[in-house]
Amino acid sequence: MASDVQLKTKRKISKDQWTAIAFLIPSIILIIVFVYGFIGWTGYVSLSNYNSLIPDFSFAGLKNYLYLFQDFRFQADLRNTLFFTILFIGAVIVIGMGLAILIDQKLKGESIFRNIFLFPMALSFVVTGVVWQWLLNPSTGFNQFLSVFGIQPKWYTDTNILAGFEWGSIEFGLPVAIISVVIAAVWQMTGFSLAMYLAGLRGIPDELREAARMDGATEFQVYWKVVLPMLAPITISVIIIMAHISLKIFDLIYAMTGSGANFVTDVPGVYMFETTFRGNYYANGAAIAIIMLLLVAVFIVPYLWSSRKGDQ
């Protein structure tokens, strides 16, 4: 009998817990309605025939999705997103890690260099897009200097595809124009990976490096065998965050290049915006949004699942 009373006492929710629950409930309701509710509504619209100003929610099945995967522009968007993501993540990791290693060498004026590299993160992608649109304009910007050497890159106006081959309705390969967008995105986001890697380097005990040197390891081997493996969790975090940014990129592309000639710089975000709010093809736009969500989920969900298992 006494044990039952003790169990009931233990299970009783305290006043502080009720207060915490009361503060959380409004946020939970808002998230359910304005995040998951709208995701569900978008999915519902994507399965309808709502492709005009007149609402039509009759069931269309996967018709809108099948249309997209047969569409030249959407195929080009997936190609561009693939190459943009690979180049963007690779450059951000390599440059960010390299700069972090250099700054970690106890350079004079370290705070100045750190602030210089972190400054672009304070800008919006729209500002970055406008600035780099001018810098990489074929008739102005960098080309004014490069013309002295007889070099005149077309930058984001170039319609060439490197190592291209026919795939579906498009030429699959690296669009030269997308490199210009990668340069702008890397310039803005490298500071983030720099900060992450610098924090990771400062968290590695000097004793580990000294022990490796005493065992005869060269400086390269110290970084390759000791430092880089310990930075692996940070690298995974950078990949996940940068992949999330690259897969849903919109504002940088829209401000800098738009869809580009022959859609060489187009991405699903721009296509969704123009399809939904300019073309009034709401079901097609919703289908694009759901595909973008699934692309992001491919990276985010496994990461969250592994993090949860690690915490347990």
From TrEMBL:
<feature type="domain" description="ABC transmembrane type-1">
    <location>
        <begin position="78"/>
        <end position="305"/>
    </location>
</feature>
<dbReference type="InterPro" id="IPR000515">
    <property type="entry name" value="MetI-like"/>
</dbReference>
<keyword id="KW-0812">Transmembrane</keyword>
<feature type="transmembrane region" description="Helical">
    <location>
        <begin position="82"/>
        <end position="103"/>
    </location>
</feature>
<keyword id="KW-1003">Cell membrane</keyword>
<keyword id="KW-0813">Transport</keyword>
<feature type="transmembrane region" description="Helical">
    <location>
        <begin position="281"/>
        <end position="305"/>
    </location>
</feature>
<feature type="transmembrane region" description="Helical">
    <location>
        <begin position="21"/>
        <end position="44"/>
    </location>
</feature>
<comment type="similarity">
    <text>Belongs to the binding-protein-dependent transport system permease family.</text>
</comment>
<keyword id="KW-0472">Membrane</keyword>
<keyword id="KW-1133">Transmembrane helix</keyword>
<dbReference type="InterPro" id="IPR035906">
    <property type="entry name" value="MetI-like_sf"/>
</dbReference>
<dbReference type="GO" id="GO:0005886">
    <property type="term" value="C:plasma membrane"/>
</dbReference>
<feature type="transmembrane region" description="Helical">
    <location>
        <begin position="115"/>
        <end position="135"/>
    </location>
</feature>
<dbReference type="GO" id="GO:0055085">
    <property type="term" value="P:transmembrane transport"/>
</dbReference>
<dbReference type="Pfam" id="PF00528">
    <property type="entry name" value="BPD_transp_1"/>
</dbReference>
<feature type="transmembrane region" description="Helical">
    <location>
        <begin position="222"/>
        <end position="247"/>
    </location>
</feature>
<protein>
    <submittedName>
        <fullName>Sugar ABC transporter permease</fullName>
    </submittedName>
</protein>
<dbReference type="InterPro" id="IPR051393">
    <property type="entry name" value="ABC_transporter_permease"/>
</dbReference>
<feature type="transmembrane region" description="Helical">
    <location>
        <begin position="172"/>
        <end position="201"/>
    </location>
</feature>
